[in-house]
Amino acid sequence: MELIWKPKAWLSALFGVLLQPFAFLYVNRIGLFGLYLILLVFSSILDMMLHADSKGGSWHELFYFSWLFLVICPIHAYLVARKYNSNQARRWYASWWGTLLSFLVSAILLIILRTFFYEPFTMSAGSMSPSINAGDQIIVSKNGYGNYRYHGIQISKTFPSKAVNRGDVIVFQYPLSPETNYVKRVVGLPGDTVSYRNKVIYIKPSCADKSTDCTPLEVEKQVLSNQDTNTSNTTLYQEYLDGVSYTIMLKDRKNDMSGNYFYQAGTKQDEWIVPQGYYFVMGDNRDNSLDSRYWGFVPVDYLIGKVIYTW
């Protein structure tokens, strides 16, 4: 005689606290598992957005919507277990080991995805405004850049197979503090000579590759809108670099802080020759960005990935 199986209510509640949506696999309700998983993902994204732009005194400063699942999931799973219909077909995941296995496999896949392929970041500062503003979420494509990290832990480092182009927005480890990630736009490639004078970028491309056009260029820009006031004095420009178009922000009345620029021996104060294996980066908020002008070049093995989506 086959024994009638029924989920243990106490174990359902425990899974609800520890594994949250996965508790509903144990009680044989895959539909509820899918529903709670979607709700958890959306609430986590909402939490990131709210806390990235959180100011002191905000109602959500000490609250996370995802915390609600620590209460709702165990209670709901407990009630489902108590009212479980033993006549329904039992799926393989409706067991303690099936639930744990499902959770572990999902966690491993998520870690692999985040480490080697795509990782979300929250923009904490305005140095890339107006392209990416403080509080915006970004998705970074990491595969091919060789610097594979998970929450600051180095998992693997290989030689990059992806080409980096002028105009790319990249995430990288800040050279002066590698545990900190920065987001900037690539302006100079290895071998390029980059100058920044009177708020204009000049680039003399490297001539190492004979197929490359080595003609010196001035990065063009045109006015989009002028927000000139007594306090902001800000103008938005559309800038064009190697076929890439993007918006930058300038304070036209603010002088370039060339006296604070990173000085490279053998060059002018506002000129830099990008070494092999390095990149020159700048923020789109030109007068409010701590970038290569001030601290130097980004090593190729410090690149994490390219920004592919922003919201």
Automatic annotation (TrEMBL):
Active-site residues, record numbering mapped to chain: 127, 184
Bilayer topology: Multi-pass membrane protein
UniProt main location, coarse: membrane
UniProt-listed GO biological process terms: signal peptide processing
Alphabetical list of InterPro entries matching this protein: LexA/Signal_pep-like_sf, Pept_S26A_signal_pept_1, Pept_S26A_signal_pept_1_CS, Pept_S26A_signal_pept_1_Lys-AS, Peptidase_S26, Sign_pep_all-beta_subdom
Cleavable signal peptide: none
Keyword Transmembrane helix in record: yes
Assigned EC number: 3.4.21.89
Gene Ontology molecular function terms on file: serine-type endopeptidase activity; signal peptidase activity
Keywords: Cell membrane, Hydrolase, Membrane, Protease, Transmembrane, Transmembrane helix
Coiled coil ranges: none
Transmembrane segments: 9-27, 33-50, 62-81, 93-113
Stored Gene3D superfamilies: 2.170.230.10, Umud Fragment, subunit A
Reactions catalysed according to its record: Cleavage of hydrophobic, N-terminal signal or leader sequences from secreted and periplasmic proteins
Pfam families in the record: Peptidase_S26
Family designation: Belongs to the peptidase S26 family.
UniProt protein name: Signal peptidase I
Organism: Paraglaciecola hydrolytica
